[in-house]
Inverse folding.
């Protein structure tokens, strides 16, 4: 019995060494910039379709319906040349605010759908959204720990405008129109700058990590060069 235990230990050690060597021979290969951009655009397209299909069943009140009709009327007037550009811009801004005020429920549902798509789904799908799956890339931790929902949540807040959407809902509920418009515009500009910086970092830095990757210590790699991970955890 003693000899058998020693033999088993030696065999286990050999298997462990083989596994380590196998991992060393297959280093992580960073996803190409084009793959990440295409995956981002595919996800955006798929999410917009899913959101439209779901939110179309949410009833809107008469006030919102009239606002949409007025928006179409102003657009038609501008196209036909009967509404000057300055008047068109001012009216569309005012109507946009009023519509946002009347469709808060739709905005909240859209946020929930985004969280399910960018956080829950990849958490239980090996760090992949539909876009990343099509591009054969995935999100993983740089330290090889398990990817958590918290990681994906923070990533989506920064990279997928989820935080901006949440802020806009809060702003439209509690701020006056003028304050909402100025604050919302500022938040939008900040989000745009963050995305540009992330794109530059992904394209030109050695580790190919955007701001969202740096914050949560993640990277995007080719799927066939890494071990398949266990379902992600709900904690870091």
């Amino acid at each position: 019995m003693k000899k058998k235990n020693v033999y088993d230990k030696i065999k286990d050690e050999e298997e462990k060494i083989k596994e380590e060597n196998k991992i060393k021979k297959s280093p992580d290969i960073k996803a190409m910039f084009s793959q990440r951009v295409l995956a981002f655009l595919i996800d955006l397209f798929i999410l917009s379709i899913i959101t439209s299909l779901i939110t179309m069943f949410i009833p809107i009140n008469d006030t919102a319906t009239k606002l949409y009709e007025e928006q179409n009327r102003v657009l038609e007037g501008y196209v036909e040349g009967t509404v000057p550009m300055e008047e068109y811009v001012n009216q569309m801004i005012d109507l946009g605010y009023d519509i946002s005020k009347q469709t808060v429920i739709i905005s909240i549902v859209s946020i929930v759908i985004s969280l399910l798509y960018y956080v829950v789904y990849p958490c239980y799908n090996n760090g992949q959204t539909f876009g990343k799956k099509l591009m054969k890339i995935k999100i993983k931790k740089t330290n090889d720990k398990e990817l958590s929902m918290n990681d994906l949540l923070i990533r989506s807040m920064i990279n997928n405008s989820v935080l901006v959407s949440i802020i806009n809902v809060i702003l439209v509920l509690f701020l006056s129109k003028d304050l909402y418009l100025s604050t919302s515009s500022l938040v939008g500009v900040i989000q745009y700058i963050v995305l540009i910086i992330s794109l530059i970092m992904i394209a030109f830095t050695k580790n190919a990590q955007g701001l969202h990757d740096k914050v949560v210590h993640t990277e995007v790699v080719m799927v066939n060069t890494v071990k398949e991970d266990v379902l992600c955890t709900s904690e870091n």
Q: What stands out?
A: The mean pLDDT is 87.
